[in-house]
Amino acid sequence: MIALVTGASGGIGLELARLFAGDGHDLVLVARGGERLAVAARELEERYRVEVRPIPRDLSNPIAPLSLFDECGEVDFLVNNAGFGHRGSFADEDPAILSEMLQVNVAALTQLTRMFLPAMVDRGSGRILNVASTAAFQPGPLMAVYYASKAYVLSFSEAIRAELDETGVSVTTLCPGPTRTAFVDRAEVSRNRFTSSRVMEPFEVAREGYAGMMAGRAVVIPGKVNRLGAAGARLAPRSLAAGIARRIHEADEPS
Q: What is the architecture of the domain spanning 2-250?
């Protein structure tokens, strides 16, 4: 069986790839960085004796999802893990960065899901893991587009999961909280004093997400603190949740 993992050269994506490989699944690994991707592929092949195909692809390019699908064909597992965030006031943000973020976090994820899903439905089996965030549960001032993109991932995934009832195909949404990956540096939230005390390791997040996907769960929120935070955000008035998020990101210091 074949698993395709985007954003697979490091962090949660690479840890998920290791879990697939450990269960004997062949892999297609996708990421922007060709050199790091090749290193990851060699490691997995040598350690787990599975076939690993690295495909360097920048999913911020609108034609990348289609070219990736044409190159891969059918897969048994699809993991849409690629994504990034950026901190800043919306009025001051670089429009090019915002467009790139929406292309990777929303458009590419949607397109890949749409293209790989029909074959899964036809054969009556398949699993999709879409990586959102605990940011999906509330508005996020100073990271407005990132939070909104992850809310889209959660809503989209839950909707198509309901459409796929009794097809044999499951869709799981993984909603990590703060995790020790390169994401926090790119998003410029790496020294946030509110989150530094509860940062999870990528392998912990991947382990819970993988188990949840294989069990066909709807939503996986790794970590007790993150689960409590997500529940609180759902129950709190939206204005209060937005205010809390703003205070958190106002406390971020440059890395």
A: 3-Layer(aba) Sandwich (3.40)
